[in-house]
């Protein structure tokens, strides 16, 4: 097990910044318009409900990380309790979730940058493809951002969002929350929460870097929980402030670039420039972090014979096959996908993953803390049911594809894993 006095390079400030940046890095830029269209004036409550599920899950994640003292997240936790088959299936599903997430971030990158100079649909697609190609190339070359650069990007991002929220509250007008819309009932809030859960998924990327954290058993839990509380407050403030600046109807009609619309309304061209720079850096950084972490997860899964041996081979200490494949799939989805469907499909996958971690944690949490797990399990179950009903209603084809892939993973994976294992035994590693 990992020593609580690990000499890793990440101190509390870095862990806090990376956890907050992992969540805010792309989620709010893409999620706001989606949830406003569903929840209307109850958008803030949608972010709060999703935040409660994320808080329960984060507590369980870091409790299990400290218990087992290993990197690897949900895959490792299931392995530790001898649920190897479930671990393999969940790892494949989780990788699909990361692909969808990177597609959303690339989608946002292309739209925000293109909007700043009135680029057309093809320009947007080219920009989305370009950022994915660039980051695939940088990862293959072994180029890594320093922690100082990552923290600087997070700081810029948070300052831009806080500024936007402040300007919005300075122009408070409750009528703008429903301007041009039919008022939504309060029960629309959990429907909105189901639509945007992926906005909170980034915190668990820190569990993949457990061994890089200095004194993880001491600092990881309080630091991530404080970061999550901060992010919940930021999301609620931005959800209200942006609507005050642009109006609910504008946020919905231009949901791909809703925060740029709000910033432009607040400060004109300077506001547009500030928010574009923040969005571009935040989404690019989020893609890079997710690509790096998901590729390394693929390598770990392949080492346990749950993926082809090719995925564990490295160049420049980078699992190149995973980087290329995951990056290409994300680029394709970013070009052809629809924002709402991508966000909701990714949200469903992360809800399932986080629910699993909450269930595992029940074995290890003190009796006085088990209620935290139960809160996450119950809320997640409700939101999953709501999201399935919503997808069946508004995006049945996308739900059908996701269901097919899930069944393929659960049913077809064991046979494929046997094939991987046979090939690995007959062919030594290079």
TrEMBL record:
RNA-binding in keyword set: no
Record localization: Cell membrane
Organism whose genome encodes this protein: Salegentibacter chungangensis
Keywords: Cell membrane, Membrane, Transmembrane, Transmembrane helix
Protein name: APC family permease
PANTHER family hit by this protein: AMINO ACID TRANSPORTER-RELATED (PTHR42770), INNER MEMBRANE TRANSPORT PROTEIN YBAT (PTHR42770:SF11)
Record carries keyword Transmembrane helix: yes
Membrane topology term: Multi-pass membrane protein
UniProt xrefs under InterPro entries: AA/rel_permease1, APC_superfamily
Bilayer-spanning residue ranges: 12-36, 42-64, 85-110, 122-141, 153-172, 184-203, 224-252, 272-297, 318-339, 345-365, 372-391, 397-416
Primary location group: membrane
């Amino acid at each position: 097990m990992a020593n609580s006095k690990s000499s890793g390079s990440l101190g509390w400030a870095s862990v806090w910044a990376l956890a907050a940046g992992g969540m805010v890095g792309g989620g709010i830029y893409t999620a706001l318009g989606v949830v406003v269209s569903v929840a209307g004036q109850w958008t803030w409550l949608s972010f709060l409900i999703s935040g409660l599920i994320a808080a329960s899950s984060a507590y369980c994640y870091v409790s299990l990380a400290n218990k087992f003292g290993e990197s690897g997240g949900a895959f490792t936790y299931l392995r530790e309790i001898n649920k190897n088959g479930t671990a393999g299936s969940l790892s494949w599903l989780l990788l699909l979730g990361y692909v969808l997430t990177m597609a959303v971030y690339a989608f946002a990158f292309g739209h925000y940058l293109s909007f700043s100079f009135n680029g057309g649909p093809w320009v947007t697609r080219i920009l989305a493809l370009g950022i994915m190609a660039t980051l695939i190339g940088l990862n293959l070359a072994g180029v890594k951002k320093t922690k100082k650069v990552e923290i600087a990007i997070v700081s810029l991002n948070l300052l831009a969002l806080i500024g936007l929220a402040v300007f919005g509250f300075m122009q408070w007008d409750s009528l703008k929350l429903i301007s041009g819309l039919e008022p939504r009932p309060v029960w629309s809030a959990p429907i909105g929460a189901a639509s945007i859960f992926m906005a909170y998924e980034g915190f668990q990327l820190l569990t993949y870097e457990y061994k890089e954290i200095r004194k993880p058993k001491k600092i990881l839990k309080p630091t991530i929980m404080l970061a999550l509380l901060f992010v919940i407050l930021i999301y609620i403030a931005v959800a209200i402030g942006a609507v005050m600046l642009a109006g609910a109807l504008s946020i919905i009609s231009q949901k791909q670039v809703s925060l740029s619309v709000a910033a432009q309304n607040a400060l004109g061209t300077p506001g547009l420039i500030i928010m574009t720079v923040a969005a571009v850096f935040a989404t690019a950084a989020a893609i890079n972090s997710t690509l790096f972490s998901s590729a390394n997860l693929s390598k770990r899964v392949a080492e346990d014979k749950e993926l082809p041996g090719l995925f564990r081979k490295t160049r420049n200490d980078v699992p190149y096959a995973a980087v290329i494949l995951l990056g290409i799939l994300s680029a394709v989805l970013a070009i052809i996908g629809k924002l709402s469907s991508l966000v909701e499909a990714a949200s469903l996958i992360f809800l399932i993953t986080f629910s699993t971690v909450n269930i595992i944690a029940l074995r290890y949490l003190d009796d006085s803390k088990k209620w935290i797990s139960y809160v996450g399990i119950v809320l997640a179950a409700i939101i999953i049911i709501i999201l399935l009903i919503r997808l069946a209603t508004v995006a049945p084809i996308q739900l059908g594809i996701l269901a097919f892939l899930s069944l393929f993973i659960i049913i077809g994976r064991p046979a494929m894993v046997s094939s991987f294992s046979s090939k690995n035994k007959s062919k030594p590693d290079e």
